[in-house]
Write a structure and sequence with these properties.
By secondary structure, this protein is mainly alpha-helical. It has three domains: about 100 residues, Endolytic murein transglycosylase (Dna Ligase, domain 1), CATH 3.30.1490.480; about 80 residues, no CATH class; about 100 residues, no CATH class. Helices cover about 50% and strands about 10% of the residues. It has 14 helices and six strands. The strands form three sheets. The protein has a two-stranded antiparallel sheet with strand order 1-2. Helix 3 packs parallel to helix 4 and helix 9 packs across helix 10. The chain starts with a helix and ends with a helix. About 5% of the residues have low confidence.
């Protein structure tokens, strides 16, 4: 009798271990299919476990629930989007939930990106409405909370990592906070031409748009500072392009005649806002420009520029560059 009881107990133990191995450790296989489980604040573990089983991520609701209770995962769920593919077991799924291995997205804002471009990147990467990003640029209450006059220029060019589902305003606050941290040590008591910090950022954005070579930034900045000090128009093509909403073609004479607040061929002084997110190098260049006599520059066709002191020199440089380009093409 005792032998039968022992034998039965052993059989039950073996069956129990086998069930545990199959239900808890042995993985199901989603193959190439991806299943996304979104955990929001206030979600209960049973509701999440039910989704995991219904979508085939794991096999056993019972073992998933027991494992969660034993490990404490059921008492602490971190909101986010959890992606599953391939082979998954109750143990691996609970491990993923325990360490909050949710989807994190890399977002890169490049130097010289306009707010429209930033909005496009956020729409693609973070699945937000690009129109909402642009709207924040004129959202008075939001801007007051950040102590900023506008967003353009303050969305610092950098690579960010955000959890999927991060609120748009949190994303924007992170970018403007990065601007503050990256620039806090560069400011001096005296800014050339009596500009304030907001105006300096506007000038830096123009320098960023003009300079393909970073080592030319201080000289390009000097040209614009020299023009400002002489009350000359800036005649900056990138500001005209920005005022027309961005162009995918060369500027025409008609474009230069268009009346917008950003047309520095028609309007003296700086445009009303930055025209992009300038790099730290461009901001430093605008703050500490090279001392030069130059008032003009023209692209030389190789990524750099030729600088001139007078309009006559400038026109000569333009003719020589055009002739050189024609010879190279023939």
């Amino acid at each position: 009798m005792i032998k039968k009881i022992v034998f039965g107990a052993v059989i039950l133990l073996v069956l129990g271990i086998s069930y545990f191995a199959v239900a808890y450790i042995y993985p199901s296989d989603l193959g190439p299919k991806k299943v996304s489980i979104i955990i929001q604040y206030g979600d209960s573990f049973p509701s999440i476990a039910q989704k995991l089983v219904e979508q085939g991520v794991v096999r056993s609701l019972t073992m998933l629930d027991l494992g969660a209770r034993f490990s404490g995962v059921d008492r602490k769920l971190t909101p986010g989007r959890y992606d599953f593919t391939g082979r998954n077991s109750c143990r691996s799924v609970l491990g993923k939930l325990a360490v909050a291995d949710f989807l994190r997205i890399k977002v890169t804002v490049f130097e010289g990106a306009t707010i429209w471009r930033v909005a496009s990147v956020l729409a693609e990467k973070m699945e937000v409405d690009s129109a909402e990003v642009v709207a924040l640029n004129t959202d008075t209450l939001f801007l007051q909370s950040l102590d900023l006059p506008y967003l353009e220029g303050y969305l610092y060019p950098e690579t960010y990592i955000f959890p999927w589902g991060t609120e748009l305003r949190v994303i924007v606050e992170a970018m403007t906070d990065m601007y503050a941290r990256q620039t806090e040590k560069i400011w001096t008591d005296s800014i050339p031409n009596g500009l304030n910090r907001d105006e300096l950022l506007i000038l830096a954005s123009i320098v960023e748009a003009e300079a393909l070579l970073s080592n030319e930034m201080p000289r390009i900045a000097s040209v614009y500072h020299n023009r400002l000090s002489r009350k000359m128009k800036l005649d900056a093509d990138p500001t005209v392009i920005y005022g027309l909403g961005g162009l995918d073609r060369p500027l025409s004479r008609r474009d230069l005649r268009q009346s917008t607040p950003y047309n520095t061929y028609r309007k003296r002084g700086l445009p009303p806002t930055p025209i992009n997110s300038p790099s730290r190098a461009a901001i430093v260049a605008a703050l500490s420009p090279e001392e030069s006599p130059y008032l003009y520059f023209v692209a030389d066709g190789t990524g750099g520029h030729r600088f001139s002191r007078t309009n006559a020199e400038h026109n000569r440089a333009r003719r020589e560059i055009r002739q050189g380009l024609k010879k190279s093409e023939s």
